[in-house]
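Q: Got a minute? One more chain.
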Amino acid sequence: MHARAFGFQANPSWDWLVPSWPLILGCFAFAKAIATTGLLNDPDTYLHIAAGRWMLSHLALPTADPFSHSMPGAPWVPHEWLAETIFAAAFEAGGWGAVRLITALSFAIALGISTRLLLRRFDPLPCVIVSAAAGWLLLPHLLARPHILALPLLVLWCGILIEARDSGRGPPLCVLPVMTLWANLHGGFMFGLALAGFLGSEAVLLPDAGQTRVAEARRWAGFIGLSIVAAMLTPNGLAGLLQPFRLVSMPMLPMLIEWRSANLDDFPALEAWLLGAIFLGFSYGFKLPLTRLLLTLGLFHLALQHVRHADLLALVVPLAVAAPLGTQIRERLRAVPTSTLSRHVERLAEPAALPGMLIAGLLMLFVGMAMVARPIDRSGDPATPAAALAAARSMSASGPVFNAYPFGGYLLFEDVPVLIDGRLEMYGDVFLARYLKASSGDEKTLAGMLDDFHIGWTMLQPQDGAVAVLDRLSGWRRAYADTQAVIHIRSRPAR
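A: Always. Here it is, folded:
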């Protein structure tokens, strides 16, 4: 449905400057993201840059751990190697500003692609509302980490497969390179494989007109098989394919914040999505096919179970429900009188002309370059205990360190071998359980780890239970403390 359907005529002389909704929302997303300093406040950002720096320096993948003192040489599958080298190259080229730039661009591109795909099924006004809500839901997980670089691929893969299913076509083979690129960037590709399996099952249960269940099973099974092969086209091969599954099966994951259940007090966007879905269902009686309802409920469950999965809810659910809901919403909107505002909203649904896209691109480039040129001081941010590390070095703290988990990324970025960092699948459940018990203040476990790993000094967060234990533990003295970190140094040699 377009502007001329309402009898609305634009001034042709200005048409080349008219933007489109994907372009507008993408620009807003870019501006919001690049102005958000908090997107750097994740310790794993340091880890990813350090890993990428190592790869660029050695022109190889570190399949044996080069960063920890607790598991030197342990087998490691760097399945996010491509994202890590991109982050490292950006950091070397333009510092933290460049890291923010590529993060913001990925966020903006993902939202722009999603909006364009949704406009094929939704009328413009509901599409804009849904896309804005998706951007809001994505903001808490807007961090300079590999999952952000993979967001456009998530949207492309899911959007193309869902549209093929909704249009009665088989899955297109041209989307397979997206899976290969995704598998080299981030472990979230396993969701893409799972969605293909879900849509294939839906096709068998509800075959398209002119197709038998056997025919649907053949074409989707063949595509899924090729998708698995595409996901294995990485330097890690089969190990890279299995790595994400190993990670999500770790029993100790819920002990870490990003793998915990969502707290709606801290996540108003997720609460709004829940209430909005209930409101639309009860007030307007919108209905979904059973399979799409199950998919929607499953993604709501994942978002509630693990905060990090809100990304899937934000970007996949709108695509999955667009075809059935778009028709129902369009029928309701026909009864609403049109207005000048609605006609302008309709007009912006058209793809922007090339000059308009170039102008928007130049504006984003100008803003991005300005942000890259502006120095960013990270000392004192939650992931950067720079003052504490400087103090430890000034005191000549020696020997292996017992570090707080959130400090692992920064320490290895600064070439300090760590006890633990964000590569949880490498350390494993047994080590992680022991570490969490020690850092929370179990004296016997802590003393055992201090001796077993010949720890010479510690860098912990003030709220860690181990701090109080070290304050009274024989052979240890508190050497430094600030609002971020507390350092203890061993006053007698380890046994």
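A: Confidence is low (pLDDT under 50) at residues 1-10.
Q: Perfect, thanks.
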